Amino acid sequence: MQTIQLPRQIVNKILAHAQTREQQEICGLISQNKLNEMKIFPVTNISTDASRFFEMDAAEMIHAMKSIRNEDAELFAIYHSHPTTAAFPSAIDIEKAGYPDALYLIVSLNTTGVLELKGFKIQGDTVQPLELVL
Ligand SMILES: [Zn+2]
Q1: What is the 73 CA–ligand 1 centroid distance (Å)?
Q2: Distance 93 CA to ligand 1 centre (A)
Q3: Distance from the CA of 33 to the center of ligand 1, in angstroms?
Q4: Which of 22, 46, 73, 118 is most exposed, with minimal Cβ within 10 Å?
Q5: What does the pLDDT read at residue 33?
Q6: 129 Cα: distance to centroid of ligand 1 (angstroms)
Q7: 112 pLDDT tier (thresholds 50, 70, 90)
Q8: Model pLDDT for residues 20-36, shown as the tens digit of each residue
Q9: What are the DSSP E strand ranges found in the chain?
Q10: pTM over 0.90
């Protein structure tokens, strides 16, 4: 299994973001520059059924992608939360995944007391779990 190293501060920011909306999915992007420095870009979930789905606000996403390019960085990961289900991509997550090179991070709030964070590559219909080193 491929191993991905995630800085603690990035993990903490994803978890903190997820905890701001415990009943709704939250989402965002993470960039990585040539020095392997990561940066988090929270994006508003505009889904009309945000308890079960996420849809990134297009303008915010474009703005984040521009910032990432301007900083000479690359899109490293796309994260979102699952308020009531396991940290595994849903059928819709797999269908909508458009970045085969990016890491898909999913936080589950389902586990009592402990947030669960898992990482995947999604290429077509294939979901490959990655080992996260936090
Ligand atoms: Zn999902």
Answers
A1: 25
A2: 5
A3: 26
A4: 22
A5: 97
A6: 14
A7: confident
A8: 999 999 999 999 999 99
A9: 3-5, 27-32, 38-43, 74-82, 103-108, 116-123, 126-133
A10: yes
| pLDDT over threshold 90, residue 51 | yes
Long-range Cβ contact pairs of 38-41 (< 8 A, separation 24 or more): 38/6, 38/7, 38/10, 38/76, 39/68, 39/71, 39/73, 40/10, 40/13, 40/14, 41/67, 41/68
37 C-alpha vs ligand 1 centroid, how far in Å? 26
Distance 72 CA to ligand 1 centre (A): 29
- Considering the segment(s) 3-133 as one domain, its CATH architecture is 3-Layer(aba) Sandwich (3.40)
pLDDT tier at 1, thresholds 50, 70, 90 = confident
